[in-house]
């Protein structure tokens, strides 16, 4: 899952722009999604500790009082409304923003708002690709495939994936940035070119069982004793993937009118 915080737009233009990127206005399907979203927004240069507001993909435009996710047409199950919301103020509030205004006791809670209001917005991209296309797509966004340099970051990555729509408790696999394309058996991080010091290989991995197993996936298949362990795999296989945005990349992205965490 990729989350992007972009420039001001009304809700309709936000939907249109996310679609243009091949993404969608963000879906917040769980408490984990909500927490992850708030944490990611706080790392962008659009975060303001006094007041931060942005669109997500829910609305009741089709049926007053019944909120659905625009991208999927599914009913909103998890929600994080502030007390007395949604209130459809003035009978024009049909789109959902997330609002953080501590002085008014808004703590990343949801508010229904006139869809024509201007807000930042969050796009979400979820798809599968081979390792090369995944790296290319992340780079296109001013990001890189995610690197995992220590156990704490690895745990954070697992929790983020668990809170996303790519997670399946029975079977989850996704690309990370490590590979040994340059030198067989020596794994490096694609973005930085540094040697992979921290690893979490499954027993008897990497095995290079074919000459093409040069890229690294994370695999969680409990029935087969895979518990978020690493596996070397043919880079041409299709997998979900995770992009990572750093603050330095975020500054570069400003030039492209795109604000990323």
Automatic annotation (TrEMBL):
Cleavable signal peptide: 1-17
Gene3D superfamilies documented for this protein: Mannose-Binding Protein A, subunit A (3.10.100.10)
Pfam families: Lectin_C
Transport among keywords: no
Keyword Signal on entry: yes
SUPFAM superfamilies: C-type lectin-like
Limits of the C-type lectin domain: 10-124, 120-244
A single MF term (Gene Ontology): carbohydrate binding
Keywords associated with the record: Lectin, Signal
Descriptive protein name: Galactose-specific C-type lectin
Organism: Culex quinquefasciatus
Lineage: Eukaryota, Metazoa, Ecdysozoa, Arthropoda, Hexapoda
